Amino acid sequence: MTFAAPLEAKSIRFRARSFVAFTLTPEAPLDVWLEGLDHWIGNSPGYFAGRPVVLDLNTLKPDVAAIESLVGVLGHRGIRIYAIELDGHTALEPNLPPVLVGAKEATTDGLLPREARAESFDKAEGRAPEAGSAKVGDGKADASKAGDSEPQVQASGTLMVKSPIRSGQTIVHPHGDVIVLGSVASGSEIIAAGSIHVYGTLRGRASAGALGNRGARIFCRKNEAELLAVDGWYVTAEEMEGVSRGKPVQAFLDGDALRVSTLS
């Protein structure tokens, strides 16, 4: 007599994975906040495309109907909300994104819980416009690669990109400075926890100090950038027109303002 052992069903594996997301924190009056957001989107089309965005409603504290309306308004602007932060709520309506509990702020010192985040924020010298203050990262140990540019992380934590960065490519380095030996094309983006050095023409977007480093700077040999940002404070191409366009510049925070000065 032959006995056949039953086949065991393959077990389902559940894995935890951590991501660092953009956070938008609407404030009253909401129409003014949305106007500032539209200005940001107008200067950086597609900036939020494909990015995880958390909606922090602990400042605005809207009711459920207002939340539904706001999520819809942001959706029409191409911003998809994948989670909501709202203290005192564990769940909202089924048609709304889930409530996120226990989120932590990404900083150069690590991950801060909400209480430490608020204390750190209160000690800051200035505040970036909310639409531009989202902290950026990829939640990975290594930097994102930009096609054939073959970034190399140095022992110091600096990421060196030896080839030009093409349009549509993104470099994300949450562990230090980024050095680009070539040019940065329009439509590309560099995001760094530290400073950004471009030894060619910078035509895309550059965000330094993305995890809260107010001392970070942006240097480039020729400024044709679409946007420059340090710790969430930003200037756009139209704001730099006739002042620093086409020149070697550095961008840095001076108190509560982002300054772009030419290099001799």
Describe the structure.
By secondary structure, the protein is α/β, with parallel strands linked by helices. The protein has 4 helices and 17 strands. It has a 7-stranded mixed beta sheet, with no helix packed on it. Strands 8-10-12-14-15 form a 5-stranded mixed beta sheet. Strands 1-2-3 form a 3-stranded parallel beta sheet, covered by helices on one side. Strand 16 and strand 17 (257-262) form a beta hairpin. The longest helix has 14 residues, at 30-43. The protein is globular.
- Quaternary arrangement of the chains shown? single chain
Percent strand: 25-35%
* Uncertain ranges: 108-114, 116-149
What topology, given as strand order, has the largest sheet?
6-7-9-11-13-16-17
Terminal-residue CA separation:
92 Å
* Count of DSSP-assigned helices: 4
H/E series, N to C?
EHEHEEEHEEEEEEEEEEHEE
- The total count of strands amounts to 17
Mean pLDDT: 78
Helix content: 10-25%
Shape: globular
The biggest beta sheet, please? 7 strands, mixed
Structural class: alpha/beta
The gyration radius over C-alpha positions equals 21 Å
Q: Which helices and strands occur, and which strands form pairs?
A:
Elements: E1 22-24, H1 30-43, E2 53-56, H2 64-76, E3 81-85, E4 105-107, E5 110-112, H3 114-123, E6 152-153, E7 159-161, E8 170-173, E9 178-180, E10 189-192, E11 196-202, E12 205-208, E13 218-223, E14 227-230, E15 233-236, H4 237-240, E16 249-254, E17 257-262
Parallel strand pairs: 1-2, 2-3, 7-9, 8-10, 9-11, 10-12, 11-13, 12-14
Antiparallel strand pairs: 4-5, 6-7, 13-16, 14-15, 16-17
